Amino acid sequence: MLTDASRRESFPSLQEMVYLNTAAEGIPPLAVRAALEKYFADKQLGMDGRERHFAEWEAAKALVASFYGLTPREVSICSCSSEAYNLAALALRLRDGDEVVINDLDFPAGATPWLQPSCPATARLWKAKQGALRTEDLIALLTPRTRLVTVSLVSFFNGFMLPLREVVEAVRRHSSALLAIDVTQALGRIPLDLSGADLIISSTHKWILASHGGGLVGVPAARAAEWTVPAGGWFNLEDAFGAHRFERAVSHPGAASFTVGMPNFPAVYAIRAGLEYIHHVGVAEIDRAARPLVEECLEGLKAMPVDLLSPRDPASLAGILAFRHPSTEKIYQHLRAKNIHVMHHAGRIRVAWHGYNTSDDVNTFLRELGDALASSS
To answer: Does domain 4-28+283-376 have CATH number 3.90.1150.10?
Structure first.
């Protein structure tokens, strides 16, 4: 991932393209393919494969826990981050008069459960200014009725990185609210210190380079009562097959209540392999390699006639940059014709820099973007 040789060995498809879309889809290393093949081999054993499946489950949970700063008993895996947030909404048991703070830099999964007509709480919007969420603006929204503040550590929209310690302190000082943190755009890319978070959620198909079909949930033991999901199922229940199973259903407390049925074992195998790969390389090493690329690209974008949506201070960024231009569609088509993969959505272009990117990728992207801008002027 960090040398030409290891990049060729683990990511052969990257030899043919400049890939800057990890914020949407990560490119898995070949170790993830081997893990999926291992799942298939274990599945061919029928019920005898179950023991191997659950061994992978426990190993994957232990890895998630190590990245989250929790214990394996404080983490679980559901099907995706959207499912995790909807289950979290069940757990909160919100009532009329309750308030939830969402923000306009967040992915829909973290914001929309609180906007559904069936949600009795009032959603209050924390608005970004100049591409960043300001803690003082959050404080102005906090009241005795605030039950939850939900926010991403790194914004999918423009790459803004939340000053988490500052936000934790503000929430604790000015409310009794719970704090939910989505680390989808951070896990595997930057070192994490998530102390103070009451709920941690991540998807699995982006920066950790695993597969679709996973939602990584972390609930500190001290918050298990607040985040126990009252859902039917079996894997999430304390005694799903006992003598009183048709009289009552009692969920496991905390994170375990978020896995309501049979785990998605193919994804679990891939999650373990992806996280093991990231752990082996080292998140700090990934950040040291990729951060200069972000800064180099940021400086290049500042010098071009584009509307930069990301904060201009590199200290407020992780791995994502975004911008707009009146000819965004033409620019996107030019880049794709040069086999440069970026995200194009809602009039913006987003680029993402991971440990498998190189300085050559930055140079190629900026050169071709400059050519596209010149031809569209």
So the answer is: yes
